[in-house]
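Q: I have two molecules that I believe assemble together. Could you output structure tokens for the complex as a whole instead of separate predictions?
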Amino acid sequence: MGMSDSERDRRAVMRLALEHRAQLWGFLVGLTKDPGKAEDLFQNTYLVLCEKWDQYRPGTNFLAWARQIARFEFLASVDPDRRPFVTAEMEVLESAMRAADSGKEPPSSRREALKRCLERMPDARARRVLELRYGDGLSGESVAQRVGMTLNALYTLLSRIRHSLQDCVERRLRTGDAGQ
Amino acid sequence: MKDNLHIEIERYLDGTLTPDETDRFLEELRRDPEGLARLGLILEDQAHLFDALREASPAPARLRATRAFRGRRTGSRPATGSRGNLAWVLGLAAAGIFVVVLGQAFSGAASRARTADSDRGMAQHPPPAPPPGRSEDPAVPRDVPPPAPSARPDPRPEPRFPKAVPPAPIAPKAPAPLAAPPTPAPEPPRGPAGDTRVAMAVLEEVKGDCVLLEGSATFPAKSQGPLLSGQGLRCGAEGATIRFPDGSRVELGPGTTVREIVRGPDGRQIALETGTLAAQVTRLIPPEKFSVTTAQARIVVVGTRFSVACAGESTRIDVREGRVAVTRLSDGAAVEVPAKHSAVAGPGAPPVALPFPVDEILLLPAQGRIAGPDWHLEKDPQASTGVALEAPKGRSGSLQDAPSVIFTEVADAGKTYSVWVRGLCLARTNRVAHDAVVVDFGDAEVTEPPGPNKGLGGGPSRALFNGFMYTPGYGWVGSDSDQGRDAPCVTVRFARPGRQTLKLYAREGPIRIDAVWISATQKTRPDDSQVGPPAVGK
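A: Yes, here they are, computed for all two components at once.
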């Protein structure tokens, strides 16, 4: 039996959600500073998207809609006393995500480009820092201890790494070399 | 974008900014579109980095990551390869489906529960009419049914998924984390359209008619509402309490107007226009500061308890704990005000730190230093602190070098204090001869009321307190109660301000002493049930 239109639409919305996972999850990591917690909240967000897929109006900004749901999920997880403090932070982060999102390439291209840049990263120490920070999930302080740096030096290094990765990603995206 | 913002972003992402630094960082970011965009990209790239590097990371490392991040499902991710990542993504999708299907399987109960949760706040996700954008996926067919126009979600969504969907390889989430608090998160009042500002503090308690001030506009102030940077507060007949993220509190008295509270380069700044303000500031890490500015003075604090009263042409600052720096704005005259001191900034003489006026001194047994064998501490449930000074025997003759209990306390000079001693006569017979003590006040002018026992203390700086036998339990004696329990009390005026040394001698015993109360206000004998001034030391 063929798939109904409605089921096809639902799956399309789910695909959109997964396609924009990095932006949603990144938004939640920014709010929680805890990738594990962000992952839980993303999962909750995803469940709500599963339920409310038919409220999405095609042709409108999916990410804005999904981010609003993620925002409510985050607020629901916050102690009511703290909500007034996080509301403003949330708005700044939303502005940041919007600013990064404007006129940008599809997320999958960026993901692939970043992956390639990472693979060709020449600086072994920079690679090691990223592996510890993101692969092993260590805090900045733990990473700094492991690589024998001060915390401030680590932050400076991380900032430089991000710059060089972003340059590399932009270059690849400009030349259409994202996945090569 | 400022150079230091790059580092601040790293610290922010690492969660090592203090709440105040976070406020400042967000404020700065808000004014820096380039910085905002950079943070947005970093957040997105971080997600890709996590995926790429955790995928490539060997198993033990992934386990460590799981622990470090308390991720519940990280371990369920496939071990390696891009297929693994895809499987994780599909697993995630399946997890969503699985939970919903469970809800359907149990006659919709879970679904209803979730909907109920939603109604309590969590999933009152307004089904926003999403703004037009470019994120439309071409995969979405054009004939998707239009979204529900209502702002409320469908309370009981129709089943959409076949029951035969197999469970996902990841554990379904229990409903608990989905539970929402009963009320939706409060939104801060908006300033100009599109303005995004940091909530400086929460209005912990608003009494009566207080209003938030913003330029010439006013908004109703509500308890638990946010106070945004740049807003002020005007209190009517009652006051309000403001709580900052670090736990610092500021209480505004009735009729007080704070023109604005902002986060500036020097930390939090409160502009007090008129009225009174009492602050308890959590100890700050330098260079973080907390300051209050009035028309006359700037008061800079580093973790303390203080109050400011601003009226007319002067501002008074009382510091209870810690230390504050006060600068008179008209000429820059500055003074540091230590704990238990005050300063006034106004016209005339420059501000000077003066000790708080000392009106009440309560000496308790545990504060005394016992010198010699006459006295000892004795547990006594009838005593106000559960312990009393006991002298089994008295001592006649000169008390010059006699054993005593030595107290030190701060008092004002030239102020007339009344003295009251709370004691208990322990004798069972001939009690009238077993109920007297002497107090030596040091460098002070001591006045005893007239009577046959006047001067029995043995010196001009001493006074006799006699007649504890007249009450079966502890009672207050002000001088010689043989002349009547309500006879005038001993008064004392210290010659020098500051630290004073007092000595307590046993003239007759056995006797217990519970307290010595030296008061500028208590002119008549206190009730025997009273154990001293209600707010000594506060």
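A: One point stands out. Chain A touches chain B through 106 residues (CB under 8 Å).
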